[in-house]
Amino acid sequence: MTMSHSCMKSLLFLLSTLCLCSSHSETSPLRFSAFLDPRHQIYLQWDYDVNDLMTFDLQFQSTGWVAFGFTNFGEMPGADIVIGGVLPDGNIYFSDWHAVNDETILEDESQDYELLSMTQDEISTTMRFRRYLRTCDKNDLEITGDTLRLITGFGTDDTIDFFKGTIAHKSLFLKLVYNEDEMHTPSVYHVYDLKLDDFPIPEDETTYACTFIPLPIVKTKHHIYKFEPMITPRNESMVHHILVYACGNASVLPTGVSDCYGADPDFALCSQIVVGWAVGGGSYMFPDETGVSIGTPLDAQWIRLEVHYSNFDLIPNLIDNSGIRLYYTPELRPYDMGVLQTGVFTFPIHFLPPGADSFNSYGVCNTSQFHEMNGTPVPDMNVFGFLLHTHLAGRGVRGVHYRNGKQLGILCEDNKYDFNLQETRGLKNVIVFKPGDEFLVECRYQTLDRRELTFGGPSTLNEMCLAFLFYYPRNNISSCMGYPNIQHVAQELGQEAAE
């Protein structure tokens, strides 16, 4: 396969300007960071600029060869890898490779990674380099605004044998918009924990545990400006999601902990989401313009805490104290924020066929009735963040914004969705929803490994199709969902729908 003339010209231009375009030098700080392995032996820092150059700085707890790259959904064939190191005599090696199959990697003819620095001490190697988000090399994977599957590795010495090294895989979203250091942290703040206390995780595949907890008692209005998960160590693989719902102040609430959607319907009370976390996510700080209001007569005084456990291996004797930590402050922001749940209503009439390489579900939110539902006129909604959610069959999710029947744009999407990385993500620019706008949520699934129908439902083995939108100013509407036409579904299945 030969490179096109236009691509060759672009590549020559990029190479000739590489040293001039990036704002990140060998020593400039990078905004984002994460450990890439469970033992915290590989630490990544990264950033990108307006010229589509991304800079990486990796520290490995190794003095042998080190490697970093991207894969297609975790598969080795087609992986894009850069390998480097420092020889005992001090000489440096660094080059761009790709995986042919599960046993072979080859050095690229086109070298599209630029080394900025390579240092080594008695215990570690630090490699700093950069590349364009999109190169013209067919052996390089594009760095997109989707969840990316990273692969990293290192060896005990400088004899490169990639498949015998220590290898780690991690999903990560690299096109982050901002980090907390760029935002305003209040000078006065308080911390409050919403959590379960010594809850015994049942020996069941799926458990929804709910309890009711009071919010902080404050004499004046405060804003919650940040939240973060508190997951009990060693239970990380069990805790699937945690949701916090606001309760109406007139609600009569039960005590104790019980099944959220079991025999006692009172444990399903309260449906307005305050904050939410799902597997793989981290802390999230709201933009400086907004926060969750507490302390006024209109604000909730109690919440319902919902923790979803997935104990597929039926492990006994597990005790959990997981929950959500809230940060709140008397330093008020201009607007109160809310969360709108959109997508497909979760119930069994939403189902997926088995053996499908690709199958889409759609849920539409039409805001034309919001005034009537809210009880008062709903102002424009300023959407600043989102969280996408499906279960194990999900492969992609997108949310599309419409006005007067015309598509305004894709508000949010992840074409390489990973169930194990569900995090709240900020938008680069606030998107304004006006009354009457529509929002379409599209979920793409793959069921090649399934022989039976997959139904919508609460279990991890069921499916969901949801997009949570974070917006301000808050209104009284918590959910705007679509659902299949039951009559049509029944007809297609050759059945009759009962009343």
Short description:
The chain has 499 residues and is mainly beta.
Please, could you describe this protein's structure?
The protein has 499 residues and is mainly beta. It is built from three helices and 35 strands. It has helices at 5-21, 370-374, 486-492, and strands spanning 32-35, 42-48, 53-60, 66-72, 75-86, 92-99, 105-107, 114-120, 125-132, 147-154, 166-173, 190-195, 199-201, 206-214, 222-230, 239-247, 258-259, 272-278, 284-285, 290-294, 302-310, 318-320, 323-329, 335-336, 338-344, 351-352, 359-366, 381-390, 394-403, 406-414, 425-433, 438-445, 454-455, 465-472, 479-482. Strands 7-6-5-4-10-11 form a six-stranded antiparallel beta sheet, with no helix packed on it. Strands 12, 15, 19, 20, 23 and 24 form a six-stranded mixed beta sheet that branches. A hairpin with a 5-residue loop joins strand 5 (75-86) and strand 6. The termini are far apart.
User: What is the CATH first-level class name of the largest domain?
Assistant: Mainly Beta
What gap, in angstroms, lies between the N and C termini?
61 Å
Low-confidence stretches: 1-21
Total helical segments:
3
The CATH superfamily title of the largest domain: Cellobiose dehydrogenase, cytochrome domain
Number of self-contained structural domains: 3
Structural class of the secondary structure composition?
Answer: mainly beta
Percentage of residues assigned to helices: under 10%
Proportion of strand residues: over 45%
CATH architecture of the largest domain: Sandwich
What is the average per-residue confidence, as pLDDT, rounded to a whole number? 90
Report the CATH topology name of the largest domain.
Answer: Immunoglobulin-like
Report the principal-axis shape. Answer: globular
Give a short account of the largest sheet: 6 strands, antiparallel
Q: What's the total count of β strands?
A: 35
Strand order in the largest sheet: 7-6-5-4-10-11
Specify Rg, calculated over alpha carbons: 25 Å
